[in-house]
Specification:
Blueprint: H1 2-15, H2 17-20, H3 51-87, H4 89-104, H5 107-117, H6 122-133, H7 135-149, H8 152-159, H9 164-172, H10 177-200, H11 211-220, H12 223-226, H13 233-257, H14 259-272
Length: 295
């Protein structure tokens, strides 16, 4: 619930940004580097723009990039992974070779090169992140599909004459929902963090208001040297909180869908109601028989 509450709060902030912080976030409202006050809750940055307004409006683009990129990565990795795992043979060899190729290529340098040579913008960032981020998820889904391919219910569907398309979407896909959801959450976390990093080093569209560009302009205006911590802490804290909330959701999802973790949680609940506690030790207990008292 903690993760859902954190992420849900930021989604509401992004949706109602015009109500929470009305006005143009790029407008010069006061003197530069004013500390937080009643007039400007988060102060002003090095060019005189309101930091609170920029932080609230920055949530829109940052979350949009994160969720859209996460969806694209999950979709591509699911299609490639399930296709390779189900059909096997030559199709599996080709798709596995492609997946391994993208896993071997260093992702960060490739991401920087793509962002530097393509036209800056939200679409470029989403495309570059999706292009470099699908391979790991595809390998995981391929392994799971290979395992499910050998199950009795899939063999029964094959014997009954069902098409491969129907078997994939009605027999295999429902058993991979937890993995797909976990992949989406992880990909979204990666996209938000990576897009912020790219914008911070100046590879995004610096005219857009995002958490990453807020950090970029804070660095360019010498906020650290001037001690204007309020210009970069809000955006950096927002990125950290969203990643923290998504990680909590991912862990909770794994706990619900993983039988081993669920059983361990139930056992801990039982042990809490008794005087015993679950402990781990490498020592082997030794029982010694008491000697009779000598007379």
């Amino acid at each position: 619930m903690t993760g859902i509450a954190i992420v849900g709060l930021f989604i509401l902030v992004a949706l109602f940004a015009p109500v929470i912080a009305p006005g143009d976030p790029t407008e010069f409202v006061d003197s530069p580097n004013l500390p937080p006050s009643a007039a400007h809750l988060f102060g002003t940055e090095g060019q005189g723009k309101d930091v609170f307004r920029q932080t609230v409006w920055g949530a829109q683009t940052s979350l949009f990039i994160g969720f859209v990129t996460g969806f694209i990565i999950t979709l591509v990795s699911t299609i490639i992974g399930m296709t390779a795992g189900y059909f096997r043979g030559r199709i599996d060899d080709i798709l596995t070779l492609l997946t391994n190729l993208f896993l071997v290529i260093p992702g960060l340098p490739l991401l920087i090169i793509l962002s530097a040579f393509l036209a800056p913008g939200t679409g470029t960032i989403i495309g570059a992140l999706a292009f470099t981020g699908w391979a790991f998820g595809a390998r995981v889904k391929r392994s799971q599909t290979l395992s499910l391919r050998e199950k009795d219910f899939v063999a029964a569907a094959l014997v009954s004459g069902e098409s491969s398309f129907k078997i994939i979407f009605t027999e295999i896909l429902p058993n991979m929902i937890s993995i797909i959801m976990g992949s989406f959450i992880s990909s979204t976390t990666y996209a938000i963090s990576a897009s912020t990093a790219l914008a911070f080093i100046g590879l995004g569209n610096v005219s857009e208001v995002t958490w990453g560009t807020n950090l970029y302009w804070s660095q360019n205006n010498g906020a650290i040297l001037q001690g204007a911590w309020w210009t970069f802490v809000p955006s950096g804290l927002c990125v950290a909180l969203v990643a923290f909330g998504l990680s909590f959701i991912n862990y909770a999802l794994d706990e619900v869908t993983n039988p081993r973790l669920r059983a361990e949680k139930d056992l801990n609940k039982v042990l809490k109601g008794t005087a015993f506690r679950k402990t781990r030790t490498r020592a082997t207990p030794v029982f010694r028989q008491s000697q009779p008292n000598s007379k």
